[in-house]
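Worked example 2:
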Amino acid sequence: MSFGRPELFVEEYIENARHIEVQVITDGENRVHIFERDCSLQLRNQKVLEVAPPRNICDELRKELTSAALRLAEGAKYKNAGTVEFLVKGDLSDPKARYIFLEINPRIQVEHTISEEITGLDLITAQLKIGLGEKLPDIFAEQLGKRGIDTKPFKNDAQKMVYAGKEHMLKNEKIGCAFQLRINLLPGNCEKVWKVYKEPKNTRVDSGVRENGPIVPFYDSMVAKLIVTGEDFDKCNNKSIEKLKEFLIEGAPINKDQLNKIMHHDTFLQGECFTTFMEKDLNKKGAVKKGGSKKEKPKKEKKEPKYEKRTIIAPLPGQIVEIHKKEGESFVKGDTLCIISAMKLLNDVTAEFDGKVLKSGANLKKDANVNADETLFEVECDINSLENDDDDDASEAGDHGAHGGASDLGTGGSGVSSTELLIANPFAVLPDDVFEKMTKRRVASRSSAPLPTKVNVKSDVYKKRYDVNLQRAKTLQERLEVCYGGGGKKYVDRNRKRGKDLPRERIKKIVDKDTKFLELSALAAFGMYNNKTHSASVVCGIGIIHGRECMFVANDSTINGGALCGESLKKIDRAQRIAEMNHLPCIYLVDGGGANLNASLDDKAAKVPSVSFVMGGLCFKNQAVMSSKLIPQLGVAFGNCTAGAAYQCAMCDELVMVKQNGTIYLGGPPLVKAATGEDCKEQELGGAVMHTGKSGVADHIVDTEEEAFKRIRSMVENLGFQKRNLSGNAALTSAFTLDRLLPVEYPRYNPDEILGIVPEENNIPFEVREVIARMVDGSRFHEHKKNFGTTLVTGFAHLFGFPVGIIANNGMLFSEAAIKATHFIQICNQRSIPLI
């Protein structure tokens, strides 16, 4: 508003202005600045390269800008991370330079990275912790403490901590300057996937791009941020040029040449760039850094024009904002023909040859929306102008390394095979007669083609990932071995003196010989309850008895006497749900005292006894429901089964009790004595003889555990055939759907190679098809909607002859990927095909 009139608004036009931002962060009580950034390098108001701190800025101007930013935050009672932006007129070295407030962005911005680099702070984490109620002094003290900075002398002064961080980064880590180079898409034709993507070593790159990953030309043109640091501006600039050259990315046109030109430009090197630099000064001749220009080449003789008709199409969807060439007008190579607004940027559509506009596209109008590949111009093209002009810009070509075909069945260079650590052979869980039917039927040729591979098992990246993941596999095996040891030697020895086996030993003796037990959730409760409640004190999994898959639930009495914690009950509930869904008989090997209500838990929710009671009740309900659905519930009472464990025994359709060791009662003799004053013995109160002869709770009595194992196998042998209703539309009368099996094939590529494919860090993307190719039979994969929703891979394959559907994340998920997944799930449900 101007002159007191609301209908009149006046803006000042500033020439020779710098765009300077001040990063602030406040927790409501403490307000600090994280210094300033120079964001003057812009193209149509979109930043291209940012620098922190700005070159040549004087201390007096810095103090003016940062103080003004903090006053604004205080006056607005601002609480969050934010960016206060100014225009500075003239030279930054002038203490009296005029500055004008532009706006405040109440959020973390893209260029926060360079403020982090020069101060050693983590602004994202700080912002989240403020939201959780923490204060800046505590947040900064923790972050800087990790860098060895003692913040105690600052007495909770967060701003002094920021200064200390900046001083430390320069003095000890030689970081006094940081550049952020925005790697942006340019208009032009692009592939469907990135053919090459290789980041420079020892350099921060924020990106979601990966080699062979999809190119998504929507939403935002920025595909990566290259953040480079140095001791001062000049060293940072030289390092940025080097790292930009090392940054290899192919598949779509990007702005590497533009960034390279900026960093070689005298105006940039002298710190004299205004906001108009990109449009007015960047392409001026003779402004290249000394030594950076190439030798002048002899001019070629100009040929006579030779014309042919061509079509220029929209490189991406967007809105037409400017039209520079009309029908009948000529243009030369490099001229801007029109400008499309898309992905928050104004994108030039430039001519790649000399020519003349013959006709404008039907939709080529200002403010009109156009689709990708829609015709913009019909033109006359001088095909002689398409010849290479020997551009002066430095070549960015490099050797990206050739990828081989199928790899040898090696182990990635470490000399140690990890297959035994990672892959249990499912062949082993199948009876011989069934396995023979699986492998010998349907010998006709397969139609689904194997997936190709581009994995180079000799590359350094592969070897590094392999070694990292092999060590992780060994760590996993070590943790599993701890779980297999139960409650420790003392309690295992006590168990053996009573003639009792450990739960996994019992299961091994029950299942068919030479078959494997598929254990579920072996690391449940890992690291909890003082790291002593291994596997949540219960073993669950699927085993084969007389060729029939059965779900086992077995207490480990060497851990807290077999008492169950909250995670135990969740684990049992999950096992029961799997059994119900797949119509698997359940076998409960009971040897414990119900819920452990008095344990010292490190989970606050688990401290409430009612939680254990509710979860325990759910497990009993599951037994009743499955029994009503004709899913057998079988059990053995191996030891003292009290409280919930007594219910578990009583809810079984058929129950075995081991004489002397096995008892079933809600409360033992001490509880009876306290409640009624009666003296009784364990066997009289709830022993095998009493329950098989008087109460009828148990059906079979045996003298030893070995007899109990045989009795369970006999019970399963006599279950008869049971209908298995899968997805409500297929009543099957055998344990295996043999009519849908194909001959079993080993993967074409060694599954061990997965260790060299999966990255060492979760935030590094990878091509998931390379993993699928090492999992499925013959590496064959019938992909569904390959070109739609490319960030999600869906398709059909076979695992050990069984048909499966696979859904695999292959990048950021967009709406198309969600639609694709929904459709695929519906197809799998229709065909009764299980999903992975």
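The longest helix spans residues 460-484. The chain has a mean pLDDT of 81.
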